[in-house]
Amino acid sequence: MARYDFASDNTAPATPEAMEAVVAANQGFTSGYGTDPITSRAADLVRELLDADAEVRFVASGTAANALSLAALCRPFEAVLAHEHAHVCTDETGAPGFFGQGLGLIRLPGASGKMDPAALVEPLAAPDVSYRQPPAALSLTNATEYGTVYSAAELRTLIAPAKAKGYGVHLDGARLANAAAAGFDLKAIKGLGVDLLVVGGTKAGMPPSEAVVIFDRAIARRFDARLKQAGQLPSKGRFYAAPFIGMLQDGALLRHAAHANAMAKKLAALTPFPARHPVEANGLFVEMDEPTLKRLHDSGWFAYRFLDGTVRFMCSWATTAESVEALGEALKSIA
Question: What angle do CA 97, 102, 105 make, to 5 degrees?
Fold first, then answer.
């Protein structure tokens, strides 16, 4: 039977802290559609995490969170500037365009998942023409799809010229906890010009839940109606919110993320295969040919070949040192 310990941080179970909070939320009767005390408490904890006065909503998936955020920033005839390997460009089945009624994606390059500031110059300077979707928003990801982490200064370099053009800014934080555990200052986000932030829950060890943080209050107007139309405003929404209480009230979110990051570094030290990207968060991306990957699969370990041709290993809150060492031995045996 194949082991999926390192296939994705999505394959891990939910943390005890998150599940205990869900069970605690399952007591008695309360109001629905996000108007309950549990959702209010979870939102307060997210605001405390970011040290920001912002609206917070909870949805079922990162795809929904990202797509609905971009739809709130763009009109159907406009487009979003994003890294060519960003999740919104490669793994969301056109959801931004679906929820945005046709909004486009302009894919830009950059090493190790970080957008190259030079790549922004041309699209920001391009004239508006009737036959091309003009950009109206910028989407960034931290930690990136390749496990690298933007500093606040790096994000500011990208965001400032977009804001100067009047564009909206979305930050995909599916692995924001891992970025924070690697040293990124979460409290800096509110001063960067981000309009909509997704704080990832699922990859951080929660049952399906993501928080959408709305810094721009004008966007918050009728956002619940947008969620309802998209099937993302459930009557028992407290069960989306509750895991954030369990993960934030005593620091479990960052504690578990730090562990996942440490396990990725441990694995990087054990593998005989060269890493193509810096190991800064909880992912390791190595160079491995197809016959060798097949030998890995045949040995009982599953890993994906990623967008740039590398083989990806993701660590999670539940990754153990023993499993890292076992995988390390397996990698040495097939090298």
Answer: 55
